[in-house]
Amino acid sequence: MKEQFAKLIDLKSIITILMTIALVVLLFTGIEPSKEVLALFCTSYGAIITYFFTRRSKGEKINE
């Protein structure tokens, strides 16, 4: 059980959760950041999500 919890709370999970919370706060509160800041945040968020959820583990092969 501890091992499963440790795997759940790794760096990618923490970063993903924090970025998602920040995005929700930006979208649903009265805070209106400049368009440049919002565009930069959305681009960074997309890049982080894409990187963490599409990279392969060590030893994992591409299906051919």
Q: What tags apply to this protein structure?
A:
mainly alpha; about 0% strand; flat
Overall structural domain count: 1
End-to-end gap: 35 Å
**What is the C-alpha radius of gyration, as a whole number of Å?**
16 Å
Q: How much helix, percentage-wise, in residues?
A: over 70%
Overall pLDDT: 79
Indicate the low-confidence ranges by residue numbers: none
Q: What's the β-strand tally?
A: 0
- What about the largest sheet? none
**What is the global morphology?**
flat
Number of helices: 3
User: What is the succession of H and E elements?
Assistant: HHH
What percentage of amino acids are in beta strands?
under 5%
What structural class is derived from the secondary structure elements? mainly alpha
Describe the protein in words.
This protein is mainly alpha-helical and 64 residues long. The protein has one domain. Helix content is 70%, strand content 0%. It is built from three helices and no strands. Helix 2 packs antiparallel against helix 3 (35-54). The protein is flat, with a radius of gyration of 16 Å.
